[in-house]
Amino acid sequence: MIQQELLYGYSSVAIAATLFIAIIMFNEAGFRVGRFIQGSTDSEVKALTGSIQASILGLLALLLGFTFSMSMQRFDNRSMALIDEASAMGTAILRVQLLPDKYKNEANEYFKRYVDLRVEIGKLDFTKDEERKTYSNKIIDVQSKLWSLAISATNDDPRAVTTGAFVKSLNDVIDSQGKRNALLQMHVPEVVLILLFVVFISSGGILGYSAGLSGKRIFAPIVLISLLITLIVFIIIDLDRPKRGLIQVNQGAMIELQDNVHN
After folding, report:
1. Can you tell me the mean pLDDT for 184-204?
2. Which of 5, 118, 169, 208 is the least crowded, having the fewest Cβ atoms under 10 Å away?
3. All residues at 6 or more sequence positions from 140 whose CB lies less than 8 Å from its CB, including other chains
4. Residue 231, pLDDT above cutoff 70
C-alpha cells in the first residue's frame, strides 16, 4: 500500500484552491504593509525590493520546472510499467499452449481470473485500503496457484523449450507486477511540494508588497498569475497521484488483454 502523507488525503482540486486563496491573501497583506511604509521608504529600498522580487520569481520558476519534471517522469514510468505487465501476461498466456494438455485449461482459467483482478485493482482509489488489500490477497492466491501448476507441469515435462519457457514467462509476470506496484508508491516527496507552496505564497506576498511601495494596485494581473500558478500546481499534484487524481494512466493495454483472454 502507498504510504499516506499529510496532503495525500486531500483532493488536488482542494489543495489548488487553498493555494490560490492563500496567494491572494498574502498578496493583499503584502500590499497593505507596502502602502503603510511607503512614505518612509526611499528609492534604494524600492529598487532592492524589486531585486528580491525577481530572485523569488526566478526560484519559483526553477522549482516549478524541477517538480513538474519529477511528477511527469513518475507518470511516464507508471504508464510504461502497465504496458510491460500487460505484455508479460500476454506472452505467458500464449505459452500456456506449451504445457502438457492436462494443464492447459486450468492455466487459462487462472490467467483469466488474474487479468480480471489486475484490471479491477487498477481502477481502485489508493485511499480504499481495505478493498485494495482484498484484491491484493486474491492476486497473490492466483499467483500461487499458477506457480504450483508450473511446478507440477515441470515435473511432468522438464524440457526448457516447453514448460521451461512457460515458467520463465510466469516469473516475468510476477516480476512486472511487483515493479508496477513499486512505481505506484513512488511520488514527489511531500517536503518538495510544501517548499513549492511556501515559495508560491511568498511570491504573492512580495508582489503585493512591491505594489504597495509603488502605491499602485495591480490586482487583475496578480489574480491571473496566481490562477496560472495554481493550474500548474494542480497538474503537478494530479500527475503524481496514481489512482487518486483526475489524470490517470491509460489502462487500454490491460483492458485489451482482458478482452482477448475472454474471447
Report:
1. 86
2. 5
3. none
4. yes
Written as nine digits, the cell of 93 is 498466456
Q: How many CB atoms lie within 10 A of CB 144?
A: 10
Determine the Cα–Cα distance for residues 190 and 179; give it in Å rounded to an integer: 22
CA torsion, ordered 29, 32, 34, 35, to nearest 10 deg = 170
Q: Is 242 exposed, middle or buried (0-12, 13-18, 19+ CB in 10 A)?
A: buried
Q: How far apart are CA 85 and CA 115, in angstroms?
A: 10
Q: At what angle do helices 43-95 and 101-122 cross, to 10 degrees?
A: 160
Report pLDDT for 2.
Answer: 44
Query: What is the distance between the alpha carbons of residues 218 and 215, in angstroms, rounded to a whole number?
Result: 10
Q: Which residue has the cell 484484491?
A: 135
Q: Please give the span between the terminal C-alpha atoms of the chain, in angstroms, as a whole number.
A: 33
Q: Which of 82, 115, 67 is nearest to 259 (CA)?
A: 115
CA-CA-CA-CA dihedral for 171, 174, 178, 181, to nearest 10: 150
- pLDDT of 1: 43
- H helices of 157-218, in order, are 163-184, 190-214
Q: C-alpha grid cell for residue 88?
A: 508479460
CA–CA dist 134, 206 (Å, integer):
50
Q: 140-183 pLDDT, tens per residue?
A: 999 999 999 999 999 988 887 888 999 999 999 999 999 998 88
Tell me the C-alpha distance between 95 and 107, whole Å.
Answer: 10
